[in-house]
Amino acid sequence: MDVRELVGQARQGRPRAVARLISLVENAVEHAENAANAAQAAGSAGGDPAAPAAASRTLREAMAELATGAARPHPARVIGLTGSPGVGKSTSTGMLIRAFRRRGSTVGVLAVDPSSPFTGGALLGDRVRMQDHATDPGVFIRSMSSRGHLGGLAWATPQALRVLEAAGCDVILVETVGVGQAEVEIARLADTTVVILAPGMGDGVQAAKAGILEVADVLVVNKADRDGVQTTVRELRNMTGLVETPWRPPIVTTVASKGEGADDLLAALDKHQAYLEESGEARRRRLARARDEIEAIALAQLRSRFAVLHGDRLDALAERLLAAETDPYAAADDLIAALR
Amino acid sequence: MDVRELVGQARQGRPRAVARLISLVENAVEHAENAANAAQAAGSAGGDPAAPAAASRTLREAMAELATGAARPHPARVIGLTGSPGVGKSTSTGMLIRAFRRRGSTVGVLAVDPSSPFTGGALLGDRVRMQDHATDPGVFIRSMSSRGHLGGLAWATPQALRVLEAAGCDVILVETVGVGQAEVEIARLADTTVVILAPGMGDGVQAAKAGILEVADVLVVNKADRDGVQTTVRELRNMTGLVETPWRPPIVTTVASKGEGADDLLAALDKHQAYLEESGEARRRRLARARDEIEAIALAQLRSRFAVLHGDRLDALAERLLAAETDPYAAADDLIAALR
Hints:
Two copies of one chain form a homodimer. By secondary structure, the first copy, chain A, is α/β, with parallel strands linked by helices. Chain A contains 14 helices and seven strands. In chain A, α1 crosses α3. Chain A is globular. The two termini of chain A are about 40 Å apart. The model of chain A is unreliable at about 40-50 and about 115-130 (pLDDT under 50).
């Protein structure tokens, strides 16, 4: 099947075409990582330099077709869900899938959490629960195991979102594990970022310290049938009370495993969506996302050139750095000069 | 104080000079992030484009001085510690500090975990415990809150390591939170990567799925006074038994809060160090680290050029992408062309 045909089928919402296009994105990240790592492993015979180029030619064609084709009347709403392992991110994602489906919205799910049941990382019970949606033609679920460093997530996610949007998804839920860099990246990608917490363990304090609160548009305290929920809510309320922004993140309590709080969460999401549109913030976020995507692709292309075309020079510079014959900044300048 | 003097004082192991140099590294990351973000925020007046350049001039001078100065007889041993929140990473770090100090080694600690007590993220009790080492002139503790995306960790950590090595540290412990990208990055930076787990919760399975086991040189099951430790050890043994590599990661049980297992852990670390030297892997890892550092600096420089020098072009390309007038790959090519 040629690229145009594949894109055409994805536009009709054919799940297999959607899956193949997202695999193209994922494979391209992996190819680029492998090429860089293979070029790096001294004496390695692996890493066919032609392979990543070929993968990206198809991907380039697909993205060109998708990006410049007929525009949709409404862009998809991108909702990011993040939180520490164990707070119930996947259960919350499941609850939101059902809630949006009840409204008749088509839902895409992109799981970039390696411990998520969507990516095969969780226990069997969870995976079985996800099968609920396997036969629903209004739900597209895809996982991405983008573990590579240097912005693999920033590079791949917008492209996967474009595929799901073209397939007609009204809402796209992006689930990431929220410790460290991921939640910052997702906040830049999503229209609305939902930070999920669970009661106890000073989770609120931890979240604040880790900077998670800075990126939250909506705060969810899940497992609200457990002890300590009021303490956590109070802690969060004190923290969000200090924030001087036009949008103060609402705090919603849920018991996602029982579907409790789904309506409240949906209402909070809608309120944020309305704020985004009214304030012009929606367009600003979409522009930032486009900017990030272009920049991430450019940097990935440059990194691939360093590894594939200038691997020998990089090796020689690394040897000289170890031998104290150069310093890292002079070596980097030398590497950049190789691009010319 | 000029840069040469500052570096001279750091070489004598003066804590304040060491701290100032590492702050230089950290500030440069933050400047670069802020510049990129400020350039991105439409209509923002912030982000003095001269500021990051100035910050990196001092840093460049310092790194040139450090990298090409008199080489030390032995490079520092870099030991990475990673694991999910709650497994006892910081307590284990504390146990290792004491163990290496008993041997007379000088120890540096670099905490890049936002929830670590070293970075101020944990509860008061932990922080008080860390004060144990505050008055020991043989211990340097520094935290880095490098939360930025696109390889902030890959960029900053090798430079901070160079400062601690110059200050005479025999051993440098790098602590990161181990969910997602961080543990892959640290494995590329460290000579030995220690993955810490705790019994229960199918932690072993989770670790395997998340790819943590792939990067482990030594596995620690901490909190070994709890139920389920034998199950976790058995699970891990089954998994590492499948690995066909010249080095099979040993599994050590510890109760770090009581200092139990410190000698076993030290023995496992020494055995891995001996393996690294005998196999030539030590040199290979140091070369890979130098390569990564040079590449990360080059990419950060290029990213900064995109943001500062070509921000308008990037904005215009993002507008065209949203309007379906270009595709992301063509836009990225256009951006790269601006570098010429």
